[in-house]
Write a structure and sequence with these properties.
mainly alpha; single chain; flat
Length: 146
């Protein structure tokens, strides 16, 4: 398996060595993103810059999503040989991706102003009438053709 393949492990075996390197790299990116977030929010508050403040909070969403990825790597590594994961810990990665997308989507629904989601066909593959469901959650959703 090359490093671009899905990070699957055989049943109850230790994860592939490249996953530990990927986990380390992910945590480095989380730290860099969090530091950038804090600096932007602090600078925005000190200077009264709404642009810096908004981007700082925007970076918080990225830090959270990336943090979920790092957590997924850690959980998958920690429980790779656990008998409680009958088919391995590969499903943890998918759950983290789904949770990140869900959190970002809920953040978009809660935000003031407009949020644009491109390439909605990725969502359409798994969820029928997602735009109608988002309307029921209180979103003002409009499907626009390119």
């Amino acid at each position: 398996m090359d490093h671009h393949s899905a990070p699957e492990c055989a049943l109850n075996e230790a994860p592939a060595p490249f996953l530990a390197a990927n986990e380390r790299k992910t945590w480095i990116v989380v730290v860099i993103t969090a530091i950038t977030m804090v600096v932007e929010i602090a600078a925005g508050l000190m200077t009264g810059s709404m642009a810096l403040l908004a981007d700082g909070w925007h970076m918080a969403s990225h830090a959270g999503a990336l943090g979920m990825t790092g957590l997924a790597y850690w959980i998958a590594r920690r429980y790779a040989t656990s008998k409680n994961f009958t088919f391995g810990t590969g499903k943890v990665y998918a759950l983290a991706g789904y949770s990140s997308a869900l959190a970002l989507g809920l953040g978009a629904l809660a935000a003031d102003g407009n949020t644009e989601i491109n390439r909605l066909y990725h969502i359409d593959r798994g969820y029928e009438h997602i735009d109608e469901k988002l309307l029921q959650l209180g979103g003002n959703v409009e499907r626009v053709s390119a």
